[in-house]
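Table S2 (continued). Query chain:
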Amino acid sequence: MEEIETWIIEQFKETSEYDGFVDLIVASRILDSDELYQEGLRRLLSTKSFPTLEQAERMGTKTTYSVMKVAADATAASSVAVTRDLQAQHAAALELARKCGKCYSDQALTPRKV
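Corresponding output:
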């Protein structure tokens, strides 16, 4: 069994396509191999992309959920970083405008709470 697992992993090391990683997950189920499953899951997660419906059906609910959760978490983390950057830019622009004084009144520069 280990020889088959090793051979399959070697075959999939040559692929960088999402479908190849999905095939690795499917092969792990056929061979009942946790090692293959973990390798396939690691490679799927490294892509940080979402599966198609057909790929999700082939992988199953558990794997699809894991992939979607990691991709969503990465997207959320990216959004937080962008928001913080925008807030910092806004604060810098606000400070510059306040120093200008002649162009804007303080009340017009007070950010609205959402």
